[in-house]
């Protein structure tokens, strides 16, 4: 039982609101030291010189010395924070300048890309127009040849009816006609492949 009490006595009280308010151990010690100093001053003012003799002046001087050291440490931390802030502001300014340079480069690259796309589009359009014109000319030639081959075929059919069978001149004309028809088929295939 005594062990339990000893453990309980050694336990330190914990402020449950300290985490919610963002108070750390150092801040809590400062507040307690300030409270003790104010209490000592208040007691001395209320009771006069007799209370001052009762109050431990050494403790008051030590608290004042601790407060002075704490103030010096806080000022040093403040100066360090100010210097870090200056460096961060300078770095942020450098990043802003670099970002502006990158933005300008992006605008230049975008303008160049737009110009190149417009040039490529114009060249593609010219090439497409040339291909359309060539296709139109080939189509006209093909249609003209088709009508000529069709007319020759009809004339050849009429000649076959009127001429004697096995006529060598008619056989030569028929072979020439078949070669011409074969060339027309080749032209039609090249037209489709175009």
Please provide a written account of the structure.
- This protein is mainly alpha-helical.
- It has one domain (56-193).
- The chain is built from 6 helices and no strands.
- It has helices at residues 2-10, 18-21, 25-47, 49-54, 57-162, 168-193.
- Helix 5 (57-162) runs antiparallel to helix 6.
- It is rod-shaped.
- Residues 1-10 have low confidence and may be disordered.
Structural class, please? mainly alpha
Number of beta-strand segments: 0
* Number of domain units: 1
Mean pLDDT: 78
Major β-sheet annotation = none
- Cα shape: rod-shaped
The proportion of residues forming helix, as a percent range, comes to: over 70%
Beta-strand content: under 5%
Spell the H/E element sequence: HHHHHH
Detail the poorly predicted runs.
1-10
Count of helix runs: 6
Query: In angstroms, what is the radius of gyration?
Result: 53 Å
Oligomer: single chain
Q: State the end-to-end distance.
A: 105 Å
Task: List the main descriptive attributes of the protein structure presented here.
194 residues, mainly alpha, disordered N terminus
């Amino acid at each position: 039982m005594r062990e339990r009490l000893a453990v309980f006595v050694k336990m330190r009280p914990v402020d449950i609101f300290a985490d919610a308010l963002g108070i750390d151990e150092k801040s809590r010690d400062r507040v307690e030291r300030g409270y003790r100093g104010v209490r000592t001053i208040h007691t001395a003012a209320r009771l006069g010189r007799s209370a001052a003799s009762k109050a431990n002046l050494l403790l008051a001087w030590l608290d004042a010395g601790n407060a002075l050291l704490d103030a010096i440490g806080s000022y040093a931390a403040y100066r360090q924070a100010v210097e870090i802030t200056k460096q961060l502001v300078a770095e942020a300014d450098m990043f802003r300048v670099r970002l502006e340079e990158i933005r300008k480069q992006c605008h230049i690259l975008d303008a160049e890309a737009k110009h190149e796309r417009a040039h490529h589009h114009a060249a593609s359009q010219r090439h497409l127009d040339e291909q359309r014109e060539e296709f139109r000319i080939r189509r006209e030639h093909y249609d003209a040849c088709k009508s000529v081959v069709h007319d020759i075929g009809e004339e050849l059919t009429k000649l076959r009816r009127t001429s004697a069978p096995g006529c060598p001149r008619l056989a030569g004309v028929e072979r020439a006609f078949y070669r011409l028809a074969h060339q027309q088929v080749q032209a039609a295939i090249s037209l489709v492949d175009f």
